[in-house]
Amino acid sequence: MDSLDIRETEIFDLFRKKWALVSAGTPEKCNGCTVGWGSFGTLWTRPGTSGSVVTVYLHPARYTCEVLQAHETFTVSFFPEKYRAALGYMGSHSGRDGDKAAAAGLTPVPIGDSVTYREAEMTFLCRKVYQHPFEKEGLAPEIGEYYRSHPKAYPPDGDGEWQPHWIFVGEILRTEGGLGCPEAEGRS
Fold it and tell me: Rounded to two decimals, what is the model's pTM?
């Protein structure tokens, strides 16, 4: 595995064009889900850190939200286009009751104190530095309407109320490309 030079990546297109798999746990017991909302930036630069962060957003109805809340590290992984169906599966099924990575045809592998997938072409290993749900009162009215009008995608809570996403900010500890993916290693 070679380290990836983040400056050579069209980083702002990654979430919009490729989707991502956000995961936490170990290869033996992990969970991940597909996300299309995320960002990269610089936050809380302090001695010994670059302040480079990845921010992802998960709905509280997703099991992965619960898993990320329980772990100190998580990964954000991107895949070649040929894994789009696997990412679709990971984003539409729960890992609460089964091994959805196996069902999607993905192979969990360790990275630091977390997990990524052998098929990923790029992975960001992150240490969680912030987590919190968005506050309804701080959202523009049309955002609340967006949640209300999509109950299948964003299920209401036990009281029938819509719930906003949680925000997770991860300080980037390591960025790796390849991880066994032939496309990423130049072997077609």
Answer: 0.86
Nearest to 131 by CA among 166, 89, 93, 90: 166
- Tens of pLDDT, residues 65-121: 999 999 999 999 999 999 999 999 999 999 988 899 999 999 999 999 999 999 999
Rounded Cα distance between 171 and 168, Å, is 10
Domain 6-177 fold is: Pnp Oxidase; Chain A (2.30.110)
* Residue 77 near residue 183, CB atoms below 8 Å: no
Q: What residue type is 137 in one-letter code?
A: E
Q: What are phi and psi of 92, to 5 degrees?
A: -120, 5
Domain boundaries, the chain: 6-177
- Cα–Cα distances (Å) from 86 to 55, 120, 165, in that order, read 22, 11, 23
Instruction: Count CA within 13 A, CB hemisphere, residue 138.
Output: 5
Give the whole-angstrom CA distance, residue 102 versus residue 118: 12
